[in-house]
Amino acid sequence: MSADLPDSLRPDTLAVHTGIHRSEANEMSEGMFLTQGYAYDSAEQARDAFAGEIDIYMYSRYANPTVTAFQERLAAIEGAESCFATSTGMSAVFVSLGSILGQGDRLVAAKALFGSTLQTFANFFEKWGIEIDYVDGNDPADWERALATPAKAVFIESPTNPMQDVLDIPRIAELSHAAGALLIVDNVFATAIGQKPLELGADAVVYSATKHIDGQGRVLGGAILGSADYVDGPVKLMVRNMGATISPFNAWVLLKGLETLAVRVRHQAASALELATWLDDHPKVRIARYPLHPSHPQHELAVSQMSLGGTLVTLDLDLGPGVDVAGPEAQAAAFRFMNALRLFTCSNNLGDAKSISTHPATTTHNKMSPEGRAEVGISETTVRLSIGLEDVEDLRADLERALAQV
Ligand SMILES: Cc1ncc(COP(=O)(O)O)c(C=O)c1O
Fold first, then answer.
1. In the chain, fewer beta carbons within 10 Å around the N or the C end?
2. Residue 354 falls inside a structural domain
3. Nearest C-alpha to atom 7 of ligand 1 is from which residue?
4. Is the peptide bond before 159 cis (omega within 30 degrees of 0)?
5. 119-167 tens-digit pLDDT
6. Is the dihedral angle over the CA atoms 60, 65, 69, 72 positive or is it negative?
7. Ligand 1 centroid vs 86 CA: distance in angstroms?
8. For the chain, how many structural domains are there in total?
9. In sequence order, what are the residues at sequence separation of 6 or more whose Cβ sits closer than 8 angstroms to the Cβ of residue 62?
10. Which atom of ligand 1 approaches the CA of 93 most closely?
11. What range defines the domain where residue 299 resides?
12. Atom of ligand 1 nearest to the CA of 348
């Protein structure tokens, strides 16, 4: 926390004023410390720093002033005791679990997760002898079954990517703790502005900062937030030694991104709700999923744990009764729709100022088996829309024009 700020500031104020450590130049905008390391005043000082007797910057794989500023600011917004930044969202996911799991440990995870997270679990954690129990995230009985046996960690996304299932964080936290497990929530879809998993009972939160925190599609980054014991213990030990460190340049971009995160996300979420409401009634759309829309299957739960519904709308096109939603005709219709969009760019990021359309079955979730995709509800007709900062009426007109191609 920066010196001499008044007590009890609210997150919007903290987002602008936390993490400021001005240099002798007294700069207004935060300085960028683009350096691999730091000079010691003497050999004795270097010795004492390596011995852990004094706490100074030593090497940027360990710590860097710009990265510290980003960590302090994000921790203040999230209301977390501690934050550690990582090179990407995936390194945050990996380290959040890899730093505490060992051979023979049990990990319980919801089935519906980002594609690379599932790949990491299947190709590495399982190979290293970690037992993984996958749960149907919206089935309370399945959570009770899985967490009747002790576990080391529980990992979920809520809302999930891309189908926007909303999971009961307080209940899953209760069951996790009874099983002796740490509950880690990937909060990318909700953002730090729309949902506070730590207040809902989770132990740790991970972010791909590449998404809304940057918000303008410039850099990759990630972060892990939680108690000082966990973040400054195993998490820091692992990142510092395995080297999944964020670059100071990226941390600076993300630090500045945090200043505008709330206004961007509130604007994008308002447009997303408006478009979801309109799309859900559109004859060419079977369903438009948005957590805070009344038609969402877990709408009440979403209202109880989210203050904003996020910036994404996941729709399924309505191709009529004769069309196989897993077949080539469905894929061709989804591609016609996406290729006709002019303001939604076909890409696989989300949370950007520019609106984005993604076909999860053939991109972000293409490594899942067709059965696995069907199980979580992803079909060839599914299109994920990330709503940007454009005028909502221009976005609606673009979608209307493209839906006419379906
Ligand atoms: C929910 C979720 N978690 C993690 C990640 C990984 O983030 P990164 O691409 O920054 O590694 C993504 C990226 O799309 C994501 O959507």
1. N
2. yes
3. 89
4. yes
5. 999 999 999 999 999 999 999 999 999 999 999 999 999 999 999 999 9
6. positive
7. 12
8. 2
9. 240
10. 4
11. 261-403
12. 14
